[in-house]
Amino acid sequence: MLVRASLRSSVRAAFLVGAFSVLAIGCNDTAKAIAPTSDSRIAPTDESAVAPANEAQIAPKVTFDSAKAWGHLQKQLGFGPRPSGTPAIVETRKYIIEQLKASGIEAKEQPFIGMTPLGEVSMSNVIATIPGRRPDRLMLASHYDTKLFREFRFVGANDGASSTAVLLELGRVLKARQNELTVELLFLDGEEARMPEWRGTDNTYGSRHYVQTAQKDGSLKSLKALVLLDMIGDRDLLIKRDSNSTPWLVDIIWGMAGRLGHTSTFSNQLTVIEDDHIPFLRAGVAAADIIDLENPTWHTPQDDLDHVSAKSLQVVGDVVTAAIPEIEKRIVSGK
């Protein structure tokens, strides 16, 4: 990533009340503030079976759990530094696929060769799909590789592990929800530059490969929006609006953050970010980057477990989960 300027669910859960079925529709973390629509409950035929009077009486929904995300983060750090083409990133990829399978989500690898300034490097994206009512897709993405450093040990707790951990937990949450759109979880390899500086095409190998492949096979047409997560775990989290990102998508996410009381984290200050969303934007896909690049641990040995926070993971997980129904609504309406 490079900063060029710094102006810097609906969860459908089927459950039983007595001997009758009640259907409640709500968004994970905004459910308390959103009342069910008029047709969202099936009234019991027996007057003795009374529908719950408020949300507190309704069986718990599947919500984002930062403790689970934190466990995913720790597991990645246990593999050590994870640059593209290393045994450690292979182990990380296996772990990602195993965790998706445990959540009941089908996943496949998308292997390719990255042509880097340091030679050819074997890389592989992981693509997971949660079917929705419609074939049109909403993508959530994160890169899972870490920057290549030889002068110090870099484990990327924030830069790579935090967003990947949140994406895995979002998969668990969204699998339990009846999604209007098909949700695609994309774990990208090769985001980091192989050389010390981010220049030219020495970066975003995985996202560029995904977009090029999707353009060739025609599948890019059904991809309606991308929400990219990157560097979202630092303790003093401040996420600015990226000027490269699609305005309507940023407005929905930042608006939801405000409704959830996270305006101190999701700032209206502007910044300009180059990241894995750029190849998608260039291909005509709406995209938003959720990232806090301006922190002192970036690409240093201090990007470790002591400098990330489960609270930050929870904030971002809550906001993204709550924003998804609004994003779906916008896409379906075509407005």
Q: Care to describe what's here?
A:
- The protein is 31% helix and 26% strand.
- A hairpin with a 2-residue loop joins strand 2 (11-17) and strand 3.
- The chain is globular.
- Helix 5 (247-259) packs across helix 7.
- It is built from seven helices and eleven strands.
- The chain has a six-stranded mixed β-sheet, with helices on both faces. A three-stranded mixed β-sheet has the order 1-10-9. It has a two-stranded antiparallel ribbon with strand order 2-3.
- It is α/β, with parallel strands linked by helices and 335 residues long.
Distance between the termini: 31 Å
Strand content: 25-35%
What is the approximate shape?
A: globular
> pLDDT below 50 for ≥5 consecutive residues: which ranges?
1-59
Helix and strand succession?
A: EEEHHEEEHEHEEHEHEH
Give a short account of the largest sheet: 6 strands, mixed
How many β-strand runs?
11
Number of helices: 7
Question: What does the radius of gyration come to?
Answer: 20 Å
Biggest sheet strand order reads 4-5-7-6-8-11
State the share of residues found in helices, binned by percent: 25-40%
Structural class category: alpha/beta
Mean pLDDT comes to 86
